[in-house]
Write a structure and sequence with these properties.
Layout: E1 4-9, H1 24-30, H2 36-47, E2 57-62, H3 71-86, E3 92-97, H4 104-112, E4 115-123, H5 127-132, H6 139-151, E5 155-162, H7 169-181, E6 186-191, E7 194-195, H8 199-205, H9 214-230, E8 234-238, E9 248-250, H10 257-273, E10 278-284, H11 289-293, H12 298-305, E11 308-314, E12 324-327
Parallel strand pairs: 1-2, 2-3, 3-4, 4-5, 5-6, 6-8, 10-11
Antiparallel strand pairs: 7-9, 10-12
């Protein structure tokens, strides 16, 4: 059974920083603060699901700054969630927070209430990028907080953003390299999207910020995914879940961004296996067919333009992410 989260969004009223990509007014005003009752409802709704698996389900407090909210309010949420840990309705609690909002006292509290995983919004490991985007913390804050989290035995997750103001392809790769050095168990990759009522939107309209294109961002994220895979780090999210399209201004938004990245990875892999132009059958796991063919069959079209006429065949004997290449003259390699 795969891991699942019961997600509870905790907007941070009075966040000390307004990052370039964040609209504090929208975040503070559009979402009401969850209560203990909301947690009960969320867990009970999840438990009613046909495939619910308590041993692989965490309650996750998302929103970015869980340990920076009012202390009594934070404790009330933790107490409500911890009851379900003790009742074995869930296997643990996951939170996300800022690197500069972690210390020993906080970690002792989180441990006492059954928190199992802590995700830090690192966003960049380059101080010049952090300063330019008003993050309010340094790369060293990420290093120190990560070390403390691992010292206490929590699962460490790190979140990074690509394409931020003043960042580059090379600096984003540098961020990934530094994240790998911190040995997190999980990573999330979020391409920067420019929304209304943010400084990124102002910078974009002033033409001092040009977001990377969708193709450029897919190419970068494919490289990042390869790097994290090689390091044995689980990437649990690539791309935003959704956005308010009415507020979209610019940036590499696509509703199936992760699939675009997966398809590009498959295309690169296929090209590494083909040595001569001609006709081929590509045997793949049935679950991977759409990724192999690409969005609107883009991979097959690209291969055909290069002289490789390929047919994709569903094959239960092929593991996900693997490909068996068969030449039409029945020779295999």
């Amino acid at each position: 059974m795969s891991h699942a989260n019961i997600s509870v969004f905790v907007p941070h009223l009075g966040c000390p920083n307004r990052c370039s990509f964040c609209d504090q007014v929208i975040i503070s005003g559009a979402s009401s603060q969850p209560s203990e009752v909301d947690i009960e409802v969320a867990v009970n709704t999840a438990k009613a699901s046909k495939n619910y698996d308590a041993d692989n389900t965490e309650l996750a407090f998302f929103g970015g700054s869980f340990t920076a909210i009012d202390r009594e309010y934070m404790l009330s949420l933790l107490k409500a969630a911890h009851r379900h840990v003790k009742q074995k309705d869930i296997c643990g609690i996951r939170i996300s927070t800022r690197p500069d909002c972690i210390d020993r006292e906080i970690l002792e509290i989180l441990m006492a209430y059954g928190v199992t995983a802590i995700e830090l919004g690192a966003q960049s490991m380059c101080d010049e990028v952090l300063i330019a985007n008003d993050r309010g913390h340094t790369a060293d804050d990420v290093v120190k907080a990560s070390a403390l989290i691992k010292e206490f035995g929590f699962e460490l997750g790190l979140q990074m953003m690509t394409g931020l103001y003043k960042s580059t392809y090379e600096l984003d790769l540098k961020t990934a390299e530094k994240i790998i050095e911190l040995h997190p168990e999980t990573v999330r990759i979020y391409p920067s999207i420019t929304l209304e009522n943010t400084r990124l939107a102002e910078y974009y309209r002033l033409r001092v910020y040009t977001p990377p294109t969708l193709d450029e961002t897919v190419e970068l994220c494919v490289k990042l995914l390869d790097m994290f895979d090689l390091a044995g780090i689980n990437v649990i999210r690539t791309g935003l879940h959704s956005i308010d399209t009415d507020r979209y201004v610019a940036g590499p938004w696509h509703p199936a961004f992760k699939e675009l990245c997966d398809s590009k990875r498959y295309l690169d892999k296929i090209l590494s296996l083909l040595t001569e132009k001609g006709e081929y059958r590509l045997h793949v796991s049935p679950k991977e067919i759409s990724k192999v063919t690409g969005n609107k069959k883009s991979n097959l079209k690209s291969l055909n333009s290069l002289g490789y006429k390929c047919t994709v065949v569903a094959d239960d004997s092929v593991k996900p992410s693997d490909i068996t290449v068969e030449r039409m003259n029945n020779s295999c390699f």
